[in-house]
Amino acid sequence: MHKLIVFLVFFWTSQAFGTQVPLSDLVRHRNIQEIKISPAGTHIAVKRLHKGKRVLVFMSLNPLDITGVLNLWGDMEVGNFYWANDERVVAEIWSRRGALESPVSYGNLWAINYDGKRGKNIFGYLAGERQLGTRIPKAKSTNAHATIIDPLPHKKNEILVSTTPWVRDRETAGEVLRINIYSGVKKKVAGLPQASGRAYTDRRGNLSFATGTDKNNNYQLYKKAEDGWTRIEDKTLAQGRPVGIDHDNNEFYFVIDRPQKTEQLVKLNPETNNLTNVFSHEITDINGIIYSPDKKPIGVYLHPTYPTEHFFDEGNGFAAYFRGIKKAFEGYRVRFTSFTSDGTKGILEVYGDRLPGDYFLVDIKTKKIDFIASSSKWLDPLELNPMLADFFISEDEFRIGTYLTFPKNSKEKLPMVVIPHGGPHSRDYWKYNQKAQILSQNGYLVLQVNFRGSTGYGDHFYTAGEREWGGKIQKDIADAVHWAIEKGYADPERVCIYGASFGGYSALMNPIRYPGLYKCAAGYVGVYNLEMMYKKGDIKRRDRGLAYLKRELSKDKNFLKENSPIHNTDKLNIPLFIIHGRLDERAPIEHAEELLEKLEKEGKPAKSLIVANEGHGFYSEENNMRLYTELLAFLDKHIGVGSVEKQPAVNQ
Fold it and tell me: Out of 91, 97, 102, 566, which residue is the most buried by the measure of CB atoms under 10 Å away?
């Protein structure tokens, strides 16, 4: 693999970086972001950064040569991509909107051969280019996003996509289209039964199921019928999402929600409607499905504390092979990004708490594994800090997961930064975490908390966070702080809190609810006025968004005021740092401006960092360098580590 490694300029190195990894290295984007192998196994497609843009590089495997490149013009770059046949890849086109730093998808699909030829925009608003003097059918522009639901391996020139219309209120249902990957000509196959959903196939080109939500944000599952779609009313299956098919037994796999319990994997025989339980875990939901090379579900990824796997099918020996790979890469997670159509080769990604991701070419037949590239070669795992997974039991018997990242060579009485995650319906994982590495590299213990309302721990845990944004969720976070102090990890006199989005809300709400617990707080793209969520931002633009807010927060003005930082600033008597992007649509800049203005009037001016061209979270390396340089200085001043970097620019 030597020539491949040299081209990508990424190879494993034993170079030591010293006792502290430079901040400029930690804020850098992953250079290699995905690698996938072609169905025939002759080529690979590598998504990587080139001059700050995501491009797609094609390489033959024998010999190892570059065969083509997809480098889109202007502000457009490559998003998710898929091999549609042995020679052609279909990629999403991402672009930067206006002055926004971060690229976003506007629904366009680009198709190109591995030799870099016959590139064409086959779907989206850019697809309707003019073609004069010909009768050949041409692509037409479509204002919608497309999700590839079946690459149609037996139809070498077509794919099936499920669309989401490009409408501001997001209430219009999409459709299923068959698209020619060379001409872009499309044909409608079926409409979708609901908005905010997608269709699924049997992986042989036949529509099988569809999902969606009604205007009250209630999830719905549909089965394909001759004249359209039939809604599944069975209470057990109605909340299920399709995850695969076993063609040998004609059974579809679903992950279903169970009231007051964790998720369960089941399989359905559509002819008999017989539903069979396959697997569930007492603590955790199903974090992902493990597929054999022939795309049959054979196992599940789980994340109770540390990640693990469970196999319910040996997959003709592939499960045993997977276990062998896990043993070879002990202490890390592994996943296959893609397989050849005959199942003999695959691309393996290995990642963990100190490894953003390394890629390998695996020959399943010979059991040979060749290193391809590291996503972030400049980061040496030996110099990064490990993450400890743990938990405690709350007073009302909830199991609250925690992740602790310690600075090097120290585990007692440390200055600690608490980082509550966003959402609130998301979760933290045992994996490489940029924020945790930045802070721990600079001497801070980092505490992350999967408070109630977090995803991944079952229906009962999820719903326990509803209408508790400013209540029991904040108690879970505060209890986690006390837990870390009682363990002897944290110095009770040197604790600060920093979070983004809902985490930014919590960064201010927790000191309001628990005065004296923190020495400082930093809110990043946070929500500070709950009533404003009904008036500004992208959530309130659609009925489903309003239904979400009513379920999560209610519309009672007294409740909203009682649980909003903006109406409780009298209790904020610690140093504050407010960070926001001026183009944020999820938590508009008015949240930060209103809070800063009120604090100023009360004689408690806060430090602030408002960046013009960023949205809901900073994207550019330069802006992140500035953010964390200032954040480290803020923390250093108030809980005193004395290891703030002064680097003015990002390493090139």
Answer: 91
Residue type, 376: S
Ramachandran class of 112: left when φ > 0, alpha when ψ lies in -120 to 50, beta otherwise: beta
Which runs of E-coded beta strand occur in 296-383?
Answer: 297-302, 308-311, 333-339, 345-352, 355-363, 368-374
**Which residues does 531 contact at the CB level (< 8 Å), separation at least 6?**
557, 560, 561, 564
Predicted TM-score (pTM) of this structure? 0.89
Strand ranges of the sheet holding 219-225, from the earlier edge strand across to the other edge = 198-201, 207-213, 219-225, 228-231
CA atoms of 630 and 611, how far apart (whole Å): 13
Q: How far apart are the first and last CA of the chain?
A: 26
Backbone angles phi, psi at 297, to 5 degrees: -65, 130
pLDDT band at 235 (very low <50, low <70, confident <90, very high): confident
| Residue 313 DSSP symbol | -
Enter the tokens of residue 198: 């997608």
What lies within 8 Å, CB to CB, of 463 at 6+ separation is: none
pLDDT band of residue 138 (cuts 50, 70, 90) is low
Q: What SS3 state is found at 595?
A: helix
Residues 418 and 510: their CA atoms lie apart, in Å, by 10
Q: Which two tokens stand for residue 163?
A: 């669309």
Strand partners, 209: 200, 223
Both tokens assigned to 237:
């299956």
> Residues with Cβ < 8 Å from 285, sequence gap 6 or more?
262, 263, 455, 456, 457, 458
Mark 290-309 as b/e (b = at least 16 C-beta within 10 Å).
Answer: bbbbbebbbbbbbbbbbbeb
User: Whole-angstrom Cα distance, residue 297 to residue 280?
Assistant: 15
Whole-Å CA distances, 434 to 28, 179, 192, 437, 577: 10, 39, 39, 5, 20
Does residue 541 carry a pLDDT above 90?
no
Region of 397 (left: φ > 0; alpha: ψ -120 to 50; beta: rest) is: left
CB proximity list for 206: less than 8 A, separation 6 or greater: 224
- 288 strand-pairing partners: 301
CB 299 within 8 A of CB 290: yes
Q: Are the C-beta atoms of residues 107 and 166 closer than 8 Å to each other? A: yes
